[in-house]
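Quarterly update from the structural biology core.
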Amino acid sequence: MQVVTLKDVPEVPAEGAAERTQGWTGPVHRTRQTIIQPGDSPNYNCSVVNFSQGCNTGWHIHDCDQVLIVTSGTGIAATEHEQREIKVATSCYQAGERHWHGAKADSTMGHITITMVGGKATWG
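Predicted structure, tokenized:
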């Protein structure tokens, strides 16, 4: 059994885009705290991603399912067809759905992300 205390997991810059959510003009950044280290699970990747105020991922597509569990703040999850506010709750995207997610212009946000080992995200 492995027990991870989040305050002991280093925060590093998150890969991929860090874009401004509509209505926010300040600087933006994202960090990642890896909960399941590469190679520790044959099945899952798991991290906490922290968004500064008004920061989002930018458009991307996963080739596997992605589960998001919002742990702090308020954000937006958007597809090409809709935008929804997300709070401390769970969102799930099916593989192949173009989307973005991140903090609202007036909030920070953190979420746990779970994907399959070997899964890829294509940005843009």
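The CA atoms of residues 38 and 45 lie 7 Å apart.
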